[in-house]
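pinned: reference chain
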Amino acid sequence: MLLQRMERGTDKEEVFLMNKYMLTEDQLSVQELAKKFADEVVAATVTDLDRKHEFPLEEVKQCGEMGFLGICVPEEYGGAGMDHLSDVLVMEQIARHSASLASIIDAHASLGSTPLLLAGTEEQKQKYLVPAASGQALCAFALTEPQSGSDAGQIRTKAVLDGDEWVLNGSKAFITNSTYASTFLVAAKTDLEAKGSRGISIFIVPAGTPGFEVGKPEEKMSNRSSYSCPLTFTDVRIPKENLLGELNRGFPLFMKCIDDGRVAISAVAVGMAQGVLERAAKYSKERVTFGKPICENQAIAFKLAEMATQIDVARAMLYNTARMSDNGVPFSKEATMTKLFCSEMCVRVCDMGLQIMGGYGLCDDYQVERMYRDAKLLTIGEGTSEICRMVIGRHVLKEY
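pinned: its structure tokens
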């Protein structure tokens, strides 16, 4: 594969840089496809979409056509049948230009489609997973509520069985993709006597179901093109067969999905940090002060060195965790550690990149300003840094 790539005109240095993490031929191919799409399509629209707070609908459709919305879903269910590392590679390349688009894919694939793949019946997979994986429909994962973000076990949305129907009542908050989603995976309490995370189930709620309302997207500092909306459920009736997985066993299922989501959001962090490094390095070569490019100043060169080092460490950690998932090795602790390190790394890198670019870094034409804003969300979504440290600490105390 490497020889073939060089014969096509790729120089040896570029081959090494692209494959120093020992990617397979298929992984390199999907990485190239995602990079080409990101550089030629996403980069051209991302700034304008952010200014307008506009959902990247056309870009999402193109992602569906290229198979990016179902990378890890088997081909028989409309997906690409690839591994989690391939999904990471796609997310990373897209996030080099747009954290919003990458987050939309994360919410759809890692969080929205994964429960269907893991726990869906054959009928549910054909009805909901196939259109999701093939890009015909978006999914949304509805877990967070106004009073229960980090403490997901305290959800108050409830579902009561009435004959052959489940009746849902409650509310959700900050649910990504809600405006355009066709399928919602909703966590609700089904055993009202159970305490904490016990007695929670997951339900499939199609968009447009009577009594189900999607609120106005939140006006956010970060990921302005990725819509996060409140949801309300008022006597929403769904068929009995829309229960996903085992009754009262929803918590372990969505925690598995959150582990996958933490790997995906880590890829967003690494990709965004890489995008900032590329922009800051380019600027440092072009910006001349005191008669020479600022990259020749040690203070600037040291910042670039620190940024590149932290990104490489984070990427190695990320790829290793994705490979653990692909090989069936338990990775919950590693997923949380990776998410914590990568998200905080991205904030640091964005800060250094903006500092290198000075006043121009504050202007949205140079894009680092937007990426600086977007980076902060990474330390909050998919488990805050504080919650991640608590989870990791529990793992450590069990091991030693």
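why pinned: The CA atoms of residues 39 and 97 lie 8 Å apart. Confidence is low (pLDDT under 50) at residues 1-9.
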